[in-house]
Each structure stands twice: as structure tokens, then as C-alpha cells.
Amino acid sequence: MNASDQQVPFRRTVVSYVQRGERMTVGQQRAWDRHWAELGTEVTALPEGPLDVDAWFGRSAPVVLEIGSGMGETTAQLAAAQPEVNYLAVEVYKPGLAQLMLRAEKLGVTNLRLLRGDAIVLLRDHIAPESLAEVRIYFPDPWPKKRHHKRRLVQSGSVALIASRLAPGGVLHLATDWENYAEQMLEVCEAEPKLRNRYADEPGGWAPRPDWRPITKFENRAHDEGRIVHDLIFERV
């Protein structure tokens, strides 16, 4: 590993998310009170240096990081389906994290930990190089207006940072229902020298939709509104 792999000093002038209200339902508040101290932490509260994932989970296992877990509809099911991995979810929206804990509780999920805050700060300052088995970014905010495209999460700098944190053979899996954003994702990922498109030989370079990725209400809405969902699967070389 060379020196450039050890530190990717990526800084943004804008963030890809907006701060929303934090009012929670009674059930969400109860889930937060029951589980947050054990299952969650604020990114800003992490000690300096790489997160000790093995200690947090109490075991050594492949680490999957999902960026932007939303209300947890997909995340809880994915974590439940992969008990053999240590599943990290990072999200800024507090009620969404509370709802995710509710869903995980109902499914009996034990291999999930939550981080609240900026995923870029987490990756840059607290995830060791070449330590992740997979990074998943499903339906990130598309920021559809052209003047807002600079706020999109998937940019050359963020993809380079993610690639540096993936172990060799690790996977970056993206999905979006916005054609313009999908094309941007494809262009940016193909330009990253540490990544290889697993489906470069498929039409357009798009990956087939994996059967194991749950269909959310947002994806159903996209289909209803005539938008095509694109998956991209890139591998760390």
C-alpha cells in the first residue's frame, strides 16, 4: 500500500444532504431510548483514528457499509439476510435511524450498527484503508436541478475515497432511478483507476438488478412514474 492509499484528504465545499426535522413517533423514541446507546453513535463523537469495528460487533467479519439508510426499509432486510457480515449504516436523519432500529428489532437483527452523521467524514477520518468488503449507496438524493448537481454524493472525490477504503475485490454497489445521475455515476466510477465494472460487457455497462436487493416504495414509485432503475456494481482492483 503506498502513501496515497493511506490518506485521502477529500474535502467538500457542500454536503449532499439536508438537515430535516428530528421529531419522532412514540415508537421511534422508545426504540431510540432502548437501543441507541448500544447500537449507534454520532460520527462527531468517534475517537480520532479508525473505528474499531471488530470490538463494536464483538467479532471479526466482513464489513458492509451502507451510506444513506433512510427509514431502514431496505437496510434491516439486507442485514437480516447476511448474518455473516458486520453491517454498518450511516445516516443523518435521526427518525430514520430510530425506525431502522425498530425494523431490525422486529427481524431479530444482531449484526447491525448505526452511525449518525456525514458519511464522507466517516470514510475519510474513521474507516481504515482497504477494510471494507462492500459499500452500498441506494437511491441517494438525486439533486435533479443542474445547479444542484455539485451536491450529489457520487462525485470523483467521494468515489476515490470509497475505492481507497474497499479491500481488493471489494464491491461498490450503486442504484438510482434518475437517468442523468446514473450516467454520472457510471462516468465517475469508470474513471476511477482502482475500480473495475463487473458488468462492463453488459448493455450500457449496467448491472442486472440483483434479486436480493429489496424493492422499496421509492423504487415502486419510480416504476409507476416511468423511471428506469439502474444498478452499477464495481469491484476494487
UniProtKB/TrEMBL annotation:
Gene3D superfamilies: Vaccinia Virus protein VP39. GO terms for molecular function: tRNA (guanine(46)-N7)-methyltransferase activity. S-adenosyl-L-methionine binds at E66, E91, D118, D141. It is an enzyme of class 2 (transferase). GO terms for cellular component: tRNA methyltransferase complex. InterPro entries: SAM-dependent_MTases_sf, tRNA_(Gua-N-7)_MeTrfase_Trmb, tRNA_methyltr_TrmB_bact. Belongs to the class I-like SAM-binding methyltransferase superfamily. TrmB family. PANTHER family: 3-DEOXY-D-MANNO-OCTULOSONIC-ACID TRANSFERASE/TRNA GUANINE-N 7 - -METHYLTRANSFERASE, PENTACOTRIPEPTIDE-REPEAT REGION OF PRORP DOMAIN-CONTAINING PROTEIN. This is tRNA (guanine-N(7)-)-methyltransferase. It comes from Saccharopolyspora thermophila. The lineage of its organism: Bacteria, Bacillati, Actinomycetota, Actinomycetes, Pseudonocardiales.
